[in-house]
Amino acid sequence: MAATETKLLLRDPAAVIFPLLLPLALVLVLGLGIPGLRQPMPELGGQRWLDTQLPATMTLLSAALTALTILPVVLTTYRDSGVLRRMSTTPAPPARLLAVQLVLYLVLVLAATALMIVLGRVVVGIAVPMSFAWFVLVLLLGTAALLALGLLLAVLTPSAKAAPGMGTLVMFPLLFFGGMWVPYETMPAGLQRFSDLTPTGAFSQALRATWSGTAPQPLQLAVLAGWLLVAGILANRLFRWE
């Protein structure tokens, strides 16, 4: 099933190229086009925006786009076209299909992040995560949590036509709480506490911590694990072949 799904994914270049190249393109454009991002900033402890904020934000964006806009469209299209109905006649349970989708798109996000870090380091000098082992763990856990949420969204979305709109409706508020437009530090205290409990908020803060050389907070890891478990279980329970 994994091999078949990989072949199907590769037949849709947009579903691969867009999440693969978008974070890299944004890092290069912003890094080369805005000189101020390459200057040390006192509010970041002397680090540059390129060292923590920008690469962490682009990693979050890549994972969110893949999980909430691409993955739901694929599964709902399968349902609308009768692919899932035919798969229901095989011994494969829904959990296996959902797991394959999660792993497949997890690998895609990992590839996009690796490409962004390597070429971003070479071209504009972005920093490599200083706590690399913690970074790998956070990247895997945070991306998996968002993908599980994307699977749940796909299960609840009535049709493939509605999937892009539903995904966008969920993604933009989550990106806000992840600090995409308003820095976490400038949010009111109540909004910060709410952001800490969202998958994007916990993911973003944990990524920034690993880039700056510190370990993520236990609460951040617990929040990501909780979203992964709850969304994954609900997606499996609510899944319907038709």
UniProtKB/TrEMBL annotation:
Record-linked InterPro entries: ABC-2_transporter, ABC2_TM, ABC2_TM_bact-type, ABC_2_transport
Residues annotated as domain ABC transmembrane type-2: 14-242
Membrane topology, from the record: Multi-pass membrane protein
Predominant location category: membrane
Residue stretches spanning the membrane: 12-34, 54-76, 97-120, 132-156, 163-184, 219-239
UniProt KW Magnesium keyword: no
Record's keyword terms, sorted: Antibiotic resistance, Cell membrane, Membrane, Transmembrane, Transmembrane helix, Transport
Compartments where found: Cell membrane; Membrane
Family: Belongs to the ABC-2 integral membrane protein family.
Protein name: Transport permease protein
Organism: Nonomuraea maheshkhaliensis
